[in-house]
């Protein structure tokens, strides 16, 4: 009975470990950054409301020491590097796996299956060796012990038409849905944070103008300015506008990729279709990763 669904849980165990390592590192990075920015705003609030109180000064000092510790942790542990490396390994393995199950280049030549299997496993080892720094972050508990799952073997042995349908639905269709949703998500978040930034800057301008009129009034201008800077830092970190543009472009490109499937009538054409599709998926991820590192 042909497989109707093929998703990430059917990919090699190394993918599961790399994917989990990347997600955990991403979560830790953003949690640390978020904590750092929130604590800075709280420290500014305490300094404003308790300017002449010793406990206020001690509280502010404590918060600034904590934020200093967060900065040191980010610099020493470098969760961003683990995030990027884990994502690079996971995506590379996913691309290689889809090529293997679809009998696409370089796993399309007429040689014994055992040799093709060894070539695939050798490629997985090469991917890991190129990212040795990730090894210490891989969780063996997330390893199901299968370098090649039964589902992968079953799909590889299916007829051309069935493999093509699985690829169109589970790979191309899945990517189209993912990029479409992510584009909308980042567009919405970019708008929300832009509105918050405008409100904070407008509030700071209003307070400054009011201070000119009433110099004796004490207003938390520094607190608002700190909050505005925190929002800007968060926006620069998340890059919602850039991701919206990038994901939208990828989603439209996938629409064009879908149309190419209509011409696939042979193993050679299927191989070319898969290689071109995977190259497009990898290109978007590589460009995004490069932008995040700059």
Tally of discrete structural domains: 1
Question: Helix fraction?
Answer: over 70%
Helix/strand-derived category reads mainly alpha
How many beta-strand runs?
A: 0
Mean residue pLDDT: 87
Proportion of residues in extended strands: under 5%
Question: Could you give a short account of the major beta sheet?
Answer: none
Gap from first CA to last CA? 48 Å
Indicate the radius of gyration in whole angstroms: 25 Å
Q: How do the SSEs run, as a string of H and E?
A: HHHHHHHHH
State the low-pLDDT regions, or none: none
**Structural shape:** elongated
Tally of separate helices: 9
Pfam families: SLATT_1, SLATT_3
Protein name: DUF4231 domain-containing protein
Keywords: Membrane, Transmembrane, Transmembrane helix
Domain SMODS and SLOG-associating 2TM effector: 12-163, 167-288
Structure commentary:
With 294 residues, the chain is mainly alpha-helical. It has one domain (8-293). It is built from nine helices and no strands. The chain has helices at 13-49, 54-77, 79-101, 113-129, 150-156, 160-213, 221-238, 240-260, 267-293. It is elongated. The two termini are 48 Å apart. The mean pLDDT is 87. Keywords: Membrane, Transmembrane, Transmembrane helix. Pfam families: SLATT_1 (PF18181), SLATT_3 (PF18184). Residues 12-163, 167-288 form the SMODS and SLOG-associating 2TM effector domain. InterPro entries: SLATT_1 (IPR040884), SLATT_3 (IPR041116). This is DUF4231 domain-containing protein.
């Amino acid at each position: 009975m042909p497989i109707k669904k093929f998703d990430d849980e059917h990919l090699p165990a190394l993918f599961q470990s790399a994917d989990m390592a990347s997600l955990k590192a991403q979560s830790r990075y953003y949690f640390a950054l978020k904590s750092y920015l929130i604590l800075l705003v709280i420290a500014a609030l305490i300094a404003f409301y308790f300017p002449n109180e010793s406990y206020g000064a001690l509280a502010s000092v404590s918060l600034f020491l904590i934020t200093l510790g967060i900065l040191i942790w980010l610099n020493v542990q470098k969760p961003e590097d683990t995030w990027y490396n884990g994502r690079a390994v996971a995506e590379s393995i996913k691309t290689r796996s889809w090529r293997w199950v679809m009998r696409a280049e370089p796993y399309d030549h007429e040689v014994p299956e055992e040799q093709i299997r060894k070539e695939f496993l050798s490629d997985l080892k090469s991917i890991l060796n190129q990212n040795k720094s990730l090894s210490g972050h891989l969780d063996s508990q997330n390893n199901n012990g299968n370098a090649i799952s039964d589902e992968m073997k079953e799909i590889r042995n299916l007829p051309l038409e069935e493999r093509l349908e699985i690829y169109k639905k589970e790979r191309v269709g899945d990517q189209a849905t993912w990029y479409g949703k992510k584009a909308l998500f980042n567009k919405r978040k970019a708008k929300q944070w832009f509105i918050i930034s405008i409100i904070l800057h407008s509030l700071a301008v209003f307070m400054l103008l009011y201070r000119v009129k009433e110099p004796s009034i004490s207003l938390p201008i520094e607190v608002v300015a700190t909050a505005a800077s925190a929002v800007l830092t968060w926006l620069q970190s998340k890059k919602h506008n850039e991701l919206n543009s990038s994901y939208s472009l990828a989603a439209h490109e996938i629409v064009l990729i879908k149309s190419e499937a209509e011409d696939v009538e042979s193993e050679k054409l299927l191989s070319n279709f898969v290689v071109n599709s995977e190259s497009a998926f990898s290109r978007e991820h590589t460009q995004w990763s490069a932008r995040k590192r700059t």
